[in-house]
């Protein structure tokens, strides 16, 4: 069903908003994916905190005109889909994981902030730890000195207790 002028305008605004509000936007081809496969990918991306949307190439090129996304306008050829997330690692992780299990998904590239990415750049982003993983490791590092200090303070008392127990056992023998 063809889109009317107002629908096209809304789609252009939406695509421009995706590029403005997300840290990373990826472009991939989905030639031959079934509706259920696209729905599965959308579901996985939504659970991770991102999104997936099939876009019309002409409207996408209009939406990125004059924005940082203009650097990847050449990727909008063929059956194009956008994957996006606020976290720069989420969309690449989900998409590369899905692409490994489905040869019909071809990652073309994307953009992170102002930096255009090729397929290798997307792969390297996917191999990085996510924001949550980094925050949990920082929290662990911050908590480690406190637990070490607590065990160091408690150690002399336990050492004295074990020495007294040993002395008591010697006298009893």
TrEMBL record:
The keyword Glycoprotein does not apply. The keyword rRNA-binding applies. GO terms for cellular component: large ribosomal subunit. Pfam families: Ribosomal_L10. Belongs to the universal ribosomal protein uL10 family. NCBIfam families: PRK00099.1-1 (NF000955). Part of the ribosomal stalk of the 50S ribosomal subunit. The N-terminus interacts with L11 and the large rRNA to form the base of the stalk. The C-terminus forms an elongated spine to which L12 dimers bind in a sequential fashion forming a multimeric L10(L12)X complex. CDD domains: Ribosomal_L10. Keywords: Ribonucleoprotein, Ribosomal protein, RNA-binding, rRNA-binding. GO terms for biological process: translation. Forms part of the ribosomal stalk, playing a central role in the interaction of the ribosome with GTP-bound translation factors. GO terms for molecular function: large ribosomal subunit rRNA binding; structural constituent of ribosome. The lineage of its organism: Bacteria, Pseudomonadati, Pseudomonadota, Alphaproteobacteria, Parvularculales. The gene is rplJ. This is Large ribosomal subunit protein uL10.
């Amino acid at each position: 069903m063809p889109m009317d002028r107002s629908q096209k305008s809304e789609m252009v605004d939406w695509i421009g908003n995706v590029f403005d509000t997300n840290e990373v936007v990826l472009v991939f081809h989905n030639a031959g994916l079934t509706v259920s496969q696209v729905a599965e990918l959308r579901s996985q991306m939504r659970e991770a905190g991102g999104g997936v949307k099939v876009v019309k190439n002409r409207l996408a090129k209009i939406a990125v005109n004059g924005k940082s996304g203009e650097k990847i306008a050449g990727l909008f050829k063929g059956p194009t889909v956008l994957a996006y997330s606020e976290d720069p690692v989420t969309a690449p992780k989900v998409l590369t994981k899905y692409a490994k299990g489905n040869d019909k998904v071809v990652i073309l590239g994307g953009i992170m902030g102002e930096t255009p990415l090729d397929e290798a750049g997307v792969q390297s982003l996917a191999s990085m730890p996510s924001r949550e993983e980094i925050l949990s490791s920082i929290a662990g590092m911050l908590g480690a000195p406190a637990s070490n200090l607590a065990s160091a303070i408690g150690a002399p008392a336990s050492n004295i207790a074990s020495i007294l127990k040993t002395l008591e056992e010697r006298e009893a023998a």
